[in-house]
Amino acid sequence: QCKPLPRYHFAKPKVKSDQSEFAVGTSWEYECLPGYIKRSFFIICLKTSKWSDAQDFCKRKSCTSPGELPHGSVLIPTGVMLGSTITFSCDQGYRLFGVSSATCIISDNTVTWDNDMPFCETIPCGPPPAISNGDFYSSSREDFFYGMVVTYKCHTGPNGKKLFDLVGQKSIYCTSKDNRVGIWSGPAPQCILPVKCPIPEVENGIMESGFGRSFSLNDAVMFRCKPGFTMKGSNIAWCQSNSKWNPPLPKCFKGCLPPPHTNHGSYNILDKEFFPIGQEVSYSCDPGYTLIGTNPIQCTSLGAWSYAAPECEAKSCNAIPNQLLNGHVVTPPNLQLGAVVSFVCDKG
């Protein structure tokens, strides 16, 4: 015998029955529910005391194809049959208006999508910032969208005479961090009164490039020192908006720059910017370290140190005999300062 009539999510018995048992060979008619292709079928009580399989009789109906989403994409992971969900997304630079997903459902005995298709619109930006003594130029003066570039220019006098210097990025563009709200890529530049930097002079230095009678914003100069002199600082400098050179102009002096430092050690004169020719510097090592190399070193007439800086090498301990009654000694490959030796007793 078979147990009561089975329940399916896709079909129901044409005639209900409260029977709790059915004889082998009994057949019963079912009909497919709305949302499935309309048809009826029979199940039979088999000799195994189980009802025959009904899985393949009712086929789910499908919603219409969603089509393409202009400037976006439609993700259809499990098809468009009843119960399936599709998702919508927009390309970079566009934002979604409407819902981000739709599910195929039953409505008035037919299958349909529960939401309308959204649309993707270009992300807009507000007007670019206005600047004093200048204006911006772009393909539009009113509407600004993702990717649009605006370029700033300073006002000029009669016959295009230069009245102001432009400081900052001359062009900015409309972008977005969250793919919804449009923002400008950076701040607007400024139009400032023309910059004039002082004539650059470096004692005992020779100008290599940047010759001129006056120096304006972003002008660059390059220096080298006369033979026998050493340079401290950058050999190139630019005229900045504050009318100063940056980096600061270099210095040329007879002597050496401070000698290099050494790990686990130091030298005896630490507070000097530069060292005169003939000056000696002595190195010393921290406790537990041995000095390796030439010491002291001397500043030569070429503006260089006579030898490379010495190094400080960790001292080594004496070897320990690998003999321990009823045990053994664990020794690392080298016995330099900080090395650990372990003593281990045998079991018991």
UniProtKB/TrEMBL annotation:
Keywords: Complement pathway, Disulfide bond, Glycoprotein, Immunity, Innate immunity, Repeat, Signal, Sushi. Gene3D superfamilies: 2.20.28.230, Complement Module, domain 1. Residues 1-60, 61-122, 123-193, 195-252, 254-314 form the Sushi domain. GO terms for biological process: complement activation, classical pathway; innate immune response. It comes from the Eukaryota. The keyword Glycoprotein applies. InterPro entries: Sushi/SCR/CCP_sf (IPR035976), Sushi_SCR_CCP_dom (IPR000436). Disulfide bonds join 2-45, 225-252, 256-299, 285-312. This is Sushi domain-containing protein. It comes from Neovison vison.
